[in-house]
């Protein structure tokens, strides 16, 4: 039962993504030939005014089919005939919709559970925090020159320090102060982690405005962390065997989150939704970011790139993505991440 909930939850993210493309296509007057929920053989379909809405067998996402999306069509309502700016708005709408979904989900969770501010409420005795001169009510703004949005950003920066000194920029009664301290290694719940020794102020019953503002910060934090994670992967500073997971890991995590309740599942879906948005925006062939890059080049040069070149690049990109997906899936089977 929990596995089904997990799969449906992940499918919801793909449907939300495709819904973004669908809405912006309609806004731009582009003909949508089909909007499908699910993949594979068709179970049911209904023809609207011009769009066919279908339900397919496998609940693993969905798709939107636009007139002139795959080939040039001499029709003013085709995607191929749209101006570059209109194309870009349709292409980016999927990722933007995933970001909006995450903000909505986080707002609901924060309204229910509250949140921690970046303001210090308590200092541990003989800790790096108190020894460095940090005080209660200090608000952390930056770490090593990087803006922090949530306590998670602070935790991530502390762990990535590997025990080296870090520089904090704090707000103390309206005055910005720089403090340098060195995290210390401690044992917590059987694991060795770095800490600096302080506690955050908590907002237990936030207003709707506070919840929305904090959810935007949570989303910005996740976007920032996603880019940092991609940088670590590219630089080789991540153990691919133990730290990187694929679709099976996502389903396992979603299943575990479903067992822990709707709040845990909702937060994980918001997290994955942000990651899905960023991944799709990467300027790689066959991804939304790749299509956007091609369109931006055409907008700047005012010349259409040859369809054969674009088609070949997307084909190669798709093959590479499928290869990576297969490798990551095999890795999930052979070297599953411990949850």
From TrEMBL:
<keyword id="KW-0472">Membrane</keyword>
<keyword id="KW-0645">Protease</keyword>
<dbReference type="InterPro" id="IPR001478">
    <property type="entry name" value="PDZ"/>
</dbReference>
<dbReference type="Pfam" id="PF02163">
    <property type="entry name" value="Peptidase_M50"/>
</dbReference>
<dbReference type="Pfam" id="PF17820">
    <property type="entry name" value="PDZ_6"/>
</dbReference>
<dbReference type="InterPro" id="IPR036034">
    <property type="entry name" value="PDZ_sf"/>
</dbReference>
<keyword id="KW-0862">Zinc</keyword>
<keyword id="KW-0482">Metalloprotease</keyword>
<protein>
    <submittedName>
        <fullName>Site-2 protease family protein</fullName>
    </submittedName>
</protein>
<feature type="domain" description="PDZ">
    <location>
        <begin position="102"/>
        <end position="174"/>
    </location>
</feature>
<dbReference type="InterPro" id="IPR041489">
    <property type="entry name" value="PDZ_6"/>
</dbReference>
<dbReference type="InterPro" id="IPR008915">
    <property type="entry name" value="Peptidase_M50"/>
</dbReference>
<feature type="transmembrane region" description="Helical">
    <location>
        <begin position="312"/>
        <end position="330"/>
    </location>
</feature>
<dbReference type="InterPro" id="IPR004387">
    <property type="entry name" value="Pept_M50_Zn"/>
</dbReference>
<keyword id="KW-1133">Transmembrane helix</keyword>
<dbReference type="GO" id="GO:0008233">
    <property type="term" value="F:peptidase activity"/>
</dbReference>
<dbReference type="GO" id="GO:0006508">
    <property type="term" value="P:proteolysis"/>
</dbReference>
<feature type="transmembrane region" description="Helical">
    <location>
        <begin position="262"/>
        <end position="282"/>
    </location>
</feature>
<feature type="transmembrane region" description="Helical">
    <location>
        <begin position="88"/>
        <end position="110"/>
    </location>
</feature>
<keyword id="KW-0378">Hydrolase</keyword>
<comment type="similarity">
    <text>Belongs to the peptidase M50B family.</text>
</comment>
<keyword id="KW-0812">Transmembrane</keyword>
């Amino acid at each position: 039962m929990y596995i089904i909930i997990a799969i449906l939850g992940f499918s919801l993210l793909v449907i939300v993504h495709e819904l973004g493309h669908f809405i912006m296509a309609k806004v731009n007057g582009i003909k949508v030939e089909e909007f499908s929920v699910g993949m594979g053989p068709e179970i049911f379909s209904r023809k609207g005014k011009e769009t066919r809405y279908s339900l397919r067998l496998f609940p693993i996402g969905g798709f939107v089919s636009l007139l002139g999306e795959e080939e040039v069509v001499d029709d003013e309502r085709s995607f191929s005939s749209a101006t570059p700016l209109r194309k870009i708005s349709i292409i980016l709408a999927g990722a933007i919709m995933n970001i909006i979904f995450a903000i909505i989900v986080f707002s609901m969770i924060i309204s229910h559970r509250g949140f921690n501010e970046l303001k210090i409420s308590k200092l541990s005795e003989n800790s790096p925090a108190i020894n460095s001169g940090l005080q209660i009510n200090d608000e952390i703004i930056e770490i090593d020159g990087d803006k922090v949005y949530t306590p998670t950003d602070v935790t991530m920066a502390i762990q990535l320090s590997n025990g080296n000194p870090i520089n904090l920029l704090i707000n103390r009664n309206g005055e910005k102060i720089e403090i340098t301290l060195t995290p210390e290694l401690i044992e917590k719940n059987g694991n060795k982690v770095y800490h600096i020794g302080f506690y955050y102020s908590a907002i237990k019953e936030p207003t709707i405005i506070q919840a929305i503002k904090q959810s935007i910060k949570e989303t910005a934090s996740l976007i920032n962390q996603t880019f940092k994670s991609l940088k670590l992967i590219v630089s080789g500073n991540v153990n691919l065997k133990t730290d990187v997971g694929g679709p099976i890991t996502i389903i396992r995590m979603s299943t575990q989150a479903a067992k822990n309740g709707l709040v845990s599942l909702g937060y994980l879906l918001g997290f994955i939704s942000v990651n899905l948005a960023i991944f799709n925006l990467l300027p790689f062939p066959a991804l939304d970011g790749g299509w956007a890059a091609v369109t931006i080049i055409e907008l700047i040069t005012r010349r259409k790139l040859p369809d054969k070149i674009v088609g070949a690049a997307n084909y190669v990109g798709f093959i590479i993505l499928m290869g990576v997906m297969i490798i990551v899936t095999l890795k999930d089977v052979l070297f599953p991440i411990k949850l």
